[in-house]
Amino acid sequence: MTGITHHRAFDRMARHRHAEGYIALVLAGGYVEAGDRGRVRVEAGQAVIHGAHESHQDEFSTIGASVLNLPLVGCDPGAALGVVEDADAIARVAERDPRQAATLLCETFRPSAVRLNDWPDLLAAALAAEPAFSLAEWAETMGIAPPSLSRGFRRSYGTSPKRYRLELRAIRAARLLPGWQGSIAALAAETGFADQAHLTRAMVALTGQTPNRLRG
């Protein structure tokens, strides 16, 4: 996806997925993005890098936002959030060549690790770092009733904790596949799936293709 999108004040974009990676550069305004790598507040002059198949929801500020979307060219997909030196210069280059604009952005991009830190964000980080842990035990430790945990997380991230964890596992498996030397069953075990069939269902839901087809 390329081009500038304009969002009104208090707009809310439901959780959605992009098949291909891209860069979102905020030219004006701002929003809170809750994605597969946590929840961040993005303001003018900042860029968010999205890897392929990642999902997120967006809540726009009191003045909305203008966002320049560029192809993911030249940036490390793992960088996530950062600032650029001259967003207006990048926008001018994008008018004639979006790929060149993306290259310029990546050359001046400085990563920033600032993320929101409410309990849904702590849970999202725990799901990413320790995918096998017990949600019930985590809720008890935090003093949150399990139904409240699920509702609160869904409000912040647009999906349930269990679905969020499943998609993180599927994304990790998809990224390991190109260089994976073992069997698909071994990949399923490595990424926390119950078995090969479980991985296959999750991969098809995420990408529309089976692991064997993605592997080529």
Structure description:
There is one protein chain. The chain has 216 residues and is an alpha+beta fold. The protein is built from nine helices and eight strands. The protein has helices at 87-94, 98-108, 119-129, 135-142, 146-157, 161-176, 184-190, 196-207, 211-215; strands at residues 3-7, 12-17, 22-35, 38-43, 46-50, 55-71, 81-83, 110-111. Strands 1, 2, 3, 4, 5, 6, 7 and 8 form an eight-stranded antiparallel sheet that branches. Strand 3 and strand 4 form a beta hairpin. Helix 3 packs parallel to helix 6 and helix 6 packs across helix 8. It is globular. The mean pLDDT is 93.
| Unreliable residue stretches | none
β-strand percent reads 25-35%
| Rg, Å, rounded | 18 Å
Major β-sheet, in short?
A: 8 strands, antiparallel
The SS-based structural class is alpha+beta
Shape: globular
Q: pLDDT average, as an integer? A: 93
Spatial gap, N to C terminus: 25 Å
In total, the number of strands is 8
Number of helices: 9
Question: Tags for this entry?
Answer:
8-stranded antiparallel β-sheet, 9 helices, about 40% helix, globular, alpha+beta, about 220 residues
In short:
With 216 residues, the chain is α+β, with helices and mostly antiparallel strands.
Give the arrangement of secondary structure elements:
Elements: E1 3-7, E2 12-17, E3 22-35, E4 38-43, E5 46-50, E6 55-71, E7 81-83, H1 87-94, H2 98-108, E8 110-111, H3 119-129, H4 135-142, H5 146-157, H6 161-176, H7 184-190, H8 196-207, H9 211-215
Antiparallel strand pairs: 1-6, 2-6, 3-4, 3-5, 3-6, 5-7, 7-8
Helix pairs in contact: 1-2, 3-6, 6-8, 7-8
